[in-house]
Amino acid sequence: MQPVSEEKRIWFIDIARFYAISLVFYGHFIERIMMLQNPAAAVSYKFIYSFHLVLFIILAGYISRESDVEFGFTKYLKHRFFSRLLPFLVFTAIFMVLPVFFAGDFFHLQLPSVEGYAGGLISTAFGLTLFCVPSWFILLIFSVEMVHYCAFRFLKSSNLRILAGILFFYVAGYWMNLQFDIVNPAKQKIIGWNYLFIHEAVVMYAFYLSGIYLRRKRFLMDTVPKKILIPGVIATFFIVLFTFHLNNGPFNFNYFSSVVIMFSAHGSFLWFPVTALAGSLFVLLLAKITPHQKTILLMGQNTLMLMCLNGIFYHYINFRVAKWVVDHLSDSFLTITGIGFLMTLTSLALCIPLIYLFNRFVPQLVGKPKTSGPWLKNFI
Asked: Can you give the C-alpha Rg of the chain in angstroms?
């Protein structure tokens, strides 16, 4: 298989990533309304969280370069450090500074204070990225790619092996997380098991392999008639709609009673993958019929940066707007959904100047280490 280069992008994947990051922004805002005991928000939250982060993993697998596993380990680790861990460290540092100037919500952390920073650094070291909560996903992607480096050399020779790998990693990862409940601080007996979300990377690698399998099968790579795509969009949407509420656990993290990948809360062994795969296919099919609009492509090509920039809204804005919405507006599903949609569009639009500035001056620090200039040389 030929690798995907910057010069030969797969446009519908960029569009799908735009939809995926939009769901992250929407979900994090709706979460705040849900936490204020709004039932309509709880339904939206459970629906979106049933598939949106799995979608990111599938997309990552789809565009992965199979030849990368042939790198020496030092070279592979260097690539992943500069494209994943360095952006995580950069945005963590930025978000450590922001509380000095702006009051935000960091859950139990009191910032700025010596105790708050010390607690935040310890939590971050053990996998709870409290300075910028949305950035946790970068650590998960890094770990999934490290699992990929170790495992894929034994699977790449045939599609049958990849399918067997999907089954193996899903069953093994699901069982491990359910048995040991590694991420739950109240039950965790061995401090530090949550490093880089490696426990969750095992089960998520099954979906990463699913993306590789779809790419090998050239899923949606060629022209597909709309008379096939549109019914596919409708069918997959209704599969999610009629199955997401069937996933009633067991959840490791019972506070939300829904899928929360950050806490390895998958729920039902059967319904979790059914809904997650259906939701991912829904977005992929929808992306295939979506026009190549410039702003959509820009955001789709900068989702790693947007994942971190979402922390601005997560920690400083969403909870304030959510409180106002609950106090002043109707609690109907239509109202909550409409406000969530408006907040998502506004938040993404406000990120565009920041995307431009980072890409213009320091792209090497935000996940593009092969770029050179204007302030720094390329790292890779």
From this structure: 20
Helix orientation angle between 52-62 and 11-34, rounded to the nearest 10 degrees:
160
For the chain, what is the domain count?
A: 1
Is the Cβ–Cβ distance between 140 and 201 less than 8 Å?
Answer: yes
What range does the domain containing 41 cover? 11-365
Residues contacting 360, CB < 8 A, separation 6+: 374
pLDDT, residue 123, reads 86
Distance of alpha carbon 302 from alpha carbon 195, whole angstroms: 25
Amino acid 331 reads: D
pTM of the predicted model, to two decimals? 0.94
Determine, yes or no, domain membership for 4. no
Give, as one character, the DSSP assignment of residue 181. -
**Residue-level pLDDT at 125:** 84
User: Largest Cα–Cα distance in the chain?
Assistant: 60
Q: Which residues is 260 bridged to in the sheet?
A: 265
Residue 378 counted as domain residue: no
Identify whether 374 is preceded by a cis peptide bond (ω within 30 of 0).
yes
pLDDT in tens, 249-305: 888 777 778 999 998 999 999 999 999 999 999 999 999 999 999 999 999 999 999
DSSP 225-286: -HHHHHHHHHHHHHHHHHHGGG-----SSTTT-S-BGGGTB---TTHHHHHHHHHHHHHHHH
Q: Which residue type sits at 14?
A: D
224 three-state secondary structure: coil
Instruction: Identify the residue whose tokens are 């519908």.
Output: 12
CB crowding 121-157: b at 16 or more within 10 Å, else e: eebbebbbbbbbbbbbbbbbbbbbbbbbbebbeebbe
DSSP state of 64: -
The answer to whether residue 191 is domain-embedded is: yes
Does 38 fall in a domain? yes
